[in-house]
């Protein structure tokens, strides 16, 4: 059963199509990795799914509901989707605990004690409960990113969208964030992640989609798309990655 179905997505910036009749289906519990050169539309795809950008054409269904209908309440949709960005985007003036409990309290109207108990449980899971009262600037990049993921999980999302979540991290901090994503997969979380980490895409994704020119040019199991691609443009992209020593 498809959790997310994108059909014919089109998005233009300044008359230039960034998504060009893009189709993507994600089954429940599936992990889909989006790969592709810089500017191929990966972030834009995640942003339109989370209704942060308006579509020019196409439809997006989440759990069978057409969320691309302009009459849909975007806030209600975003409560079912957890989005994590490259640059963490934690609120600097709030503690870790306040960052994690903000949406559950304000949006989901949970009582403070209940939201804090859940937040501490989630923080304990990622080994950061001792940082609950710290402000983000006291945390390493890897710790901040794990808090950002916990903050998204606190809304009990149906779908997680992860946009280059390790790109801003020093190499020694990448592993701790990838370990957390591995755990989410083991828990059955449905995820769509844009990544430049081909090794990670190969390991964690059930399906890899190669984007080029705003379309999914090739899609399949990681070993096929990354190991034996059928499309010349995928081959060319991977050749460049190999030459750069990133595969
Ligand atoms: N708000 C915007 N206004 C104008 N152009 C935009 C906007 N957002 C994205 N673009 C353009 O759309 C294209 C696709 O960008 P996008 O960020 O989706 O690519 P990407 O595949 O995620 O790239 P990267 O791997 O570098 O993150 C780029 O040419 C970008 O400059």
TrEMBL record:
Keywords: Amino-acid transport, ATP-binding, Cell membrane, Membrane, Nucleotide-binding, Transport. One of its GO terms (molecular function) is ATP binding. It is found in: Cell membrane. It is a peripheral membrane protein. Its main location: membrane. It comes from the Bacteria. Coiled coil: none annotated. Residues 4-238 form the ABC transporter domain. Pfam families: ABC_tran. Belongs to the ABC transporter superfamily. This is Amino acid ABC transporter ATP-binding protein. It comes from Micromonospora cathayae.
């Amino acid at each position: 059963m498809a959790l997310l179905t994108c059909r014919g997505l089109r998005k233009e910036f300044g008359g230039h199509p960034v998504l060009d009749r893009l189709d993507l289906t994600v089954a429940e519990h599936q992990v889909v990795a989006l790969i592709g050169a810089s500017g191929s539309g990966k972030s834009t795809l995640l942003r339109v799914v989370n209704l942060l950008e308006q579509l020019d054409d196409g439809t997006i269904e989440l759990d069978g509901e057409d969320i691309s209908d302009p009459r849909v309440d975007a806030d209600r949709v975003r409560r079912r989707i957890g989005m994590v960005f490259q640059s963490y985007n934690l609120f600097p003036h709030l503690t870790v605990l306040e960052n994690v409990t903000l949406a559950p309290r304000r949006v989901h109207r949970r009582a403070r004690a209940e939201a804090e108990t859940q937040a501490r449980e989630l923080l304990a899971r990622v080994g950061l409960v001792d940082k609950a009262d710290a402000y983000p600037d006291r945390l390493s990049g890897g710790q901040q990113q794990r808090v950002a993921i916990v903050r998204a999980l606190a809304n009990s999302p149906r779908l997680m969208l992860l946009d280059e979540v390790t790109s801003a991290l020093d190499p020694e901090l990448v592993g701790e964030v990838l370990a957390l994503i591995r755990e989410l997969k083991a828990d059955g979380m449905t995820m769509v992640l844009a990544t430049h980490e081909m090794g990670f895409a190969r390991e964690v994704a059930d399906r890899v989609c190669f984007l080029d020119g705003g379309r999914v040019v090739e899609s399949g199991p990681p070993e096929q798309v990354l190991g034996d691609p059928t499309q010349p443009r995928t081959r060319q992209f991977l050749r460049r990655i190999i030459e750069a020593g990133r595969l």
